[in-house]
Design goal:
Layout (H helix, E strand, L loop, with lengths): L1 H20 L4 H24 L3 H38 L18 E3 L5 E10 L6 E8 L8 E6 L3 E4 L2 E4 L3 H5 L8
Parallel strand pairs: 1-6
Antiparallel strand pairs: 1-2, 2-3, 3-4, 5-6
Helix pairs in contact: 1-2, 2-3
């Protein structure tokens, strides 16, 4: 039984780690915590069966943390996300322009003038008074964060539609945008 529980714990922990680290949205992260809870329970079984008290107690604690993660991501964050999506679906501004949730900007593809995806949004910077977005921080190139560069794409050069950021800039103009740097 300990051997089966050990393999179950290993698989569950690895799958859950990938799900939560991937940041694929509120529900995927929440279900990652559910799977983490299964893994912690299996590690508790291993700890009891093999008389490993450190493994037992650490996974009882981790199981409690996982329950908190379930509440946060499948409860609270999912409710907030659902509310924002519902508000977007039913609201338009007085001029007929559609609203979008700022939280959805992270990871949106940036499409150049010709429709090619040339970058991805990673953040937006807004004025502290009035909330007007000044520019997006976008990532260009690289793989998994290696070799990528961060640039500032002016908000006035963008429009949000169909789950992507569209711009009239071409690929070369996007590559020449000012680099955003950490100090």
């Amino acid at each position: 039984m300990a051997d089966f529980a050990g393999w179950m714990a290993l698989v569950a922990t690895c799958v859950a780690a990938v799900m939560t680290a991937s940041n694929l949205g509120v529900r995927v992260t929440g279900w990652g915590f559910v799977i983490f809870t299964v893994g912690a329970a299996a590690w508790v079984v291993v700890g009891i069966a093999t008389d490993q008290t450190q493994l037992l107690y650490s996974n009882i604690f981790l199981g409690l943390v996982d329950v908190f993660g379930i509440w946060r991501w499948l409860g609270r964050r999912a409710r907030i996300s659902d509310t924002a999506q519902a508000e977007v679906a039913r609201s338009t501004l007085e001029d007929g322009e559609a609203l979008f949730s700022i939280a959805t900007l992270d990871g949106l593809p940036i499409k150049a003038k010709d429709g090619e995806i040339v970058a991805y949004a990673v953040d937006a910077l807004a004025a502290s008074s009035g909330g007007r977005i000044s520019y997006l921080i976008i990532r260009l190139g690289g793989v998994g964060g290696l070799g990528e560069t961060l640039h500032r794409l002016p908000w006035r050069a963008t429009r949000i539609a169909d789950g992507e950021v569209k711009t009239d800039l071409d690929k070369k103009a996007i590559q020449r945008l000012p680099v955003a740097v950490a100090s």
